[in-house]
DNA sequence: CGGAGTGTTTAGAATGTCCTAAACGTTCGA
DNA sequence: TCGAACGTTTAGGACATTCTAAACACTCCG
């Protein structure tokens, strides 16, 4: 029980909240935060002790973190334990999370809108012309909107240095 | 039961998913979608019928939608019903949702990180110098990161035409 | 072999969120 | 004043999610 424990506890708790908020779960946030404030790689047992979750839960969440590239695993000769290291580059971290969310969003949104448009065309004959035009215009607007967002996010994700883009965006040059 | 019902059902269901995904809830997404595909303002009873939720639930979610500016309310002389109209400008819609999330995120993230930093300073005397420097560096990195993101999002929110920014971002001019 | 050390899987408990049903309050017109 | 129309609030049920506990599988070493 050293004197910096409060520091870690506060930060870990906060990252738990952020993890929930961004849809990656409280435990994942807490695990990542714990690793992030550790000078050395940690084992699953270390995490079980420090985060206060069970081994099984740690296992599941570590696997998810590995899949997202938010944590990496390493080994030591003559030691059967796995050692975990956090992705400490916060911009890479953000890119991973954003990429994941983008993927999910894209699936559901694109599917429903384009399917609606197909159905609209299919039933065009049975509709009043004004109704058809109205629905077409609205659904097209959604599709265009989504397409633009999607391209913008992908452009962001392709930037090797997201940080630079953010700084540039912040510097309020009026470009017109 | 006209032939375009499938169109609406598909889209409404999809927006329900998107609402969940963005943390505003399924019902809010569905209600907004229903209004968006209606040529005329709708009453709460209309929505109860079309979306298939109860009056109470509709009431709660409509209030939330109003608060976020995603829906607006109007009246007709000699008619006690409230009439609801969707925010049909999708860029304004996105701005509202983004603003809301930004607010929440900022609260939790800033609070935990800066509190951690305070605690770190408070317990500085009892810490090995190397440990102090390590924690300070990591927490500072988080705070800087968060500050940059926060400024970037606020810059986006201030743009009167978010669409233009997205289009510009997409057009991949190498600016260095 | 057998047993200790490590990580994974799973059944179910705990928790939180969403939604309904119904009571309630208010306003308006007969 | 009464009752109908409309919207709000609330108690609780249904559901999904998250987490625990414990069984399980694998590997290595004595």
What attributes does this structure have?
homodimer; two-stranded antiparallel sheet; DNA-binding
| Shape estimate of chain A | elongated
The percentage of residues in β strands of chain A lies in 5-15%
The unreliable regions of chain A are none
| Helix fraction of chain A by DSSP (H/I, runs of at least 4) | 55-70%
- Biggest interface, and residues per chain? A-B, 59 and 59 residues
User: What structural class do the secondary elements of chain A suggest?
Assistant: mainly alpha
Largest sheet strand order of chain A: 1-2
Which value, in Å, is the CA radius of gyration of chain A?
A: 23 Å
Q: What series of H and E elements makes up the topology of chain A?
A: HHHHEEHHH
Which quaternary structure do these chains form? Answer: homodimer
How many DSSP E strands of chain A? Answer: 2
Largest sheet of chain A: 2 strands, antiparallel
Number of helices of chain A: 7
What is the arithmetic mean of pLDDT of chain A? 91
N-end to C-end Cα span of chain A? 58 Å
List the helices and strands and how they pair.
The structure is a homodimer.
Chain A: H1 5-21, H2 26-36, H3 44-52, H4 55-68, E1 71-76, E2 79-86, H5 90-122, H6 129-158, H7 162-170
Antiparallel strand pairs in A: 1-2
Helix pairs in contact in A: 1-2, 2-4, 5-6
Chain A binds a DNA duplex (30 and 30 nucleotides) through helix 4 and strand 2.
